[in-house]
Amino acid sequence: MILETIMIIALCLLMLAILANLYRVVKGPSSADRVQALDSIGINLIASIAVYSVLLHTHAFFDLILLIGILSFIGTVAFARFIERGVVIERKR
Amino acid sequence: MSGSGDVVGVILILIGAAISLISAIGNVRLPDVYTRSHAASKSSTLGVLCTLVGTLLYFVISDGYFSIRLILGIVFVFLTAPVAAHVICRAAYRHQVPLAEGTAQDELKDYYMENENIDNKNTDNKANLIEKEVKLQVTE
């Protein structure tokens, strides 16, 4: 019982963190701010999935942690290359 | 349901969630993109690592289930989150996102002006960004 209460408190803290990052996504002056905040939202989602799997007492969601980590990293790097050079994949001429 | 050994994992999870919230507050309150990246990368990495280690310890202690996938996730997040922050910061600097008002010195400026050959094609973009930052600081 107290375990569930603590897990719900942790989920509420993570929800506040995601909302604060969402504020930065909406209001950030440059696009690098928005990409940084979206990457931070991805990391907070990983933490939320871990807390939720403890709350449900199952280990079926651990693949999802790895998957969201990889997707967040790839998306961030691709968007950073787009900001920096204008293209994501350079082709040889 | 909760034995005495689970307390370690639960406390680690709560600490990790609190550190993530602190990181998000820093991401809202700090003045420019580089300091925001400083807050967002370091402390949110620490927060998610505390949460994942707490989850791992919880399942090891309560079920005796040791998850290799969770270990892989911890190592992957630990390796890639600072790299992503570095790449974003470099992209922002090369795209001439302005620094905060109170910045004392900019040591990268001479280096990039000499070696990277950034010409003035982005100056109107930079002017727009400076205007936006000034408006934002006035409204706040």
UniProtKB/TrEMBL annotation, chain A:
Name under which the protein is recorded: Multisubunit sodium/proton antiporter, MrpF subunit
Species: Fontibacillus panacisegetis
Source species taxonomy: Bacteria, Bacillati, Bacillota, Bacilli, Bacillales
GO cellular component terms given for this protein: plasma membrane
Keywords: Antiport, Cell membrane, Ion transport, Membrane, Transmembrane, Transmembrane helix, Transport
InterPro entries xref list: MrpF/PhaF-like
Family according to the record: Belongs to the CPA3 antiporters (TC 2.A.63) subunit F family.
Signal sequence, start to end: none
Entry-linked Pfam families: MrpF_PhaF
Membrane-protein topology: Multi-pass membrane protein
Membrane-spanning residues: 6-25, 37-55, 61-83
UniProtKB/TrEMBL annotation, chain B:
Protein origin, superkingdom: Bacteria
Keyword Membrane attached: yes
Keywords: Antiport, Membrane, Transmembrane, Transmembrane helix, Transport
GO molecular function, one term: sodium:proton antiporter activity
Keyword Cytoplasm: no
Residue ranges crossing the lipid bilayer per the database entry: 6-28, 40-61, 67-89
Localisation per UniProt entry: Membrane
Membrane topology: Multi-pass membrane protein
Cellular component, GO, one term: membrane
Family assignment from sequence similarity: Belongs to the CPA3 antiporters (TC 2.A.63) subunit G family.
Protein name according to UniProt: Multicomponent Na+:H+ antiporter subunit G
Source organism (scientific name): Fontibacillus solani
